[in-house]
Amino acid sequence: LDRQIIGAVLLEDKLRQGTKEAISKIKAMSIHVVMLTGDDENIAKRIANEAGIEEYHANLLPDNVLFRLNLFSRQ
User: Fold this and answer.
1) pLDDT value at position 12?
2) What is the mean pLDDT of the chain?
3) What is the pLDDT of residue 11?
4) What is the CATH number that goes with domain 19-74?
5) HSE, side-chain direction, 13 A CA sphere, residue 18
6) Are 34 and 44 in contact (CB under 8 A)?
């Protein structure tokens, strides 16, 4: 999709109903899903696994999230 960020999902310690299914549908469209979070590594890993997200980055400050979003949009 023209290397544009088209959406974001906010995940808390507990997955919202339908999140795993939504991630699965997005991945089925050949869209690479990455989770960027300020949560610690253990929580991020658990949530990513529950949601079916292979790539995640934890312990990020808001500025780090913006920086990484810019990097991903350039790839």
Assistant:
1) 57
2) 88
3) 58
4) 3.40.50.1000
5) 2
6) no
The tokens of 18 are what? Answer: 């339908």
Structural domain boundaries in the chain: 19-74
User: What are the start-end ranges of the E strands in 1-75?
Assistant: 34-36, 55-57
In this structure, are strands 34-36 and 55-57 parallel, antiparallel, or unpaired? Answer: parallel
Decide: pTM greater than 0.85: no
Which regions of the chain are under pLDDT 70? 1, 10-12
Q: For tokens 């989770």, name the residue.
A: 35
Report which of 5, 15, 1, 3 is spatially closest to residue 48, judged by C-alpha positions.
15
Residues 6+ apart with CB under 8 A from 19: 9, 11, 51
> What pLDDT is stored for residue 37 in this prediction?
94
